[in-house]
């Protein structure tokens, strides 16, 4: 036969004061926890919406930047084309200027020749010419007057 010895420690009855942990307190804590989760979920949803809006704005800006870069590239190409045309015009104008100067010189010479010819034609003093009377070339005029008396 064996002995089993059990020892029990007696409570002295002195405990620290604690609030009641009844069902009401548990329910209140669950409501508080539920409200916190609800508030956090609402905040997360709001932040997600803000992020989505920001992404849309960023995408729109990226599209605007891309469009502006394309326009800038086109303008740069137009500027290069205009510069090339200007160079061609300058090259051609130098040739044209030389041609025009030659034409002007030729026309000035022709003009001088015509002026000389005109002067020589008008300058009849060098010719031995005498003035001529044209009175012998006119026909005699006969006037007849008739008077009738009634």
Can you describe what's shown?
- Helices cover 67% and strands 0% of the residues.
- It is mainly alpha-helical.
- The radius of gyration is 62 Å and the shape is elongated.
How many individual β-strands? 0
Distance between the termini: 209 Å
Helix run count: 1
Give the low-confidence spans.
Answer: none
What's the alpha carbon Rg, rounded to whole Å?
A: 62 Å
Strand content: under 5%
For the residues shown, what is the average pLDDT? 75
| Biggest beta sheet summary | none
Q: Helix coverage percent of residues? A: 55-70%
List keywords for this structure.
mainly alpha, elongated
Task: Provide the fold topology.
Blueprint (H helix, E strand, L loop, with lengths): L22 H100 L28
Outline of the structure:
This protein has one helix and no strands. It has 150 residues and is mostly helical.
């Amino acid at each position: 036969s064996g002995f089993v010895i059990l020892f029990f420690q007696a409570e002295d009855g002195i405990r620290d004061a604690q609030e009641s942990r009844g069902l009401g307190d548990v329910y209140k804590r669950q409501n508080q926890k539920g409200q916190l989760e609800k508030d956090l979920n609402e905040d997360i949803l709001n932040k997600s919406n803000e992020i989505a809006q920001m992404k849309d704005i960023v995408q729109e800006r990226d599209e605007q930047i891309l469009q502006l870069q394309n326009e800038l590239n086109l303008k740069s190409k137009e500027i290069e084309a205009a510069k090339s045309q200007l160079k061609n015009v300058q090259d051609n104008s130098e040739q044209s200027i030389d041609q025009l100067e030659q034409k002007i010189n030729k026309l000035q010479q022709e003009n001088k020749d015509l002026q000389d010819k005109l002067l020589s034609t008008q300058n009849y003093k060098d010719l031995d010419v005498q003035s001529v009377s044209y009175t012998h070339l006119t026909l005699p005029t006969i006037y007849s007057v008739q008077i009738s008396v009634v």
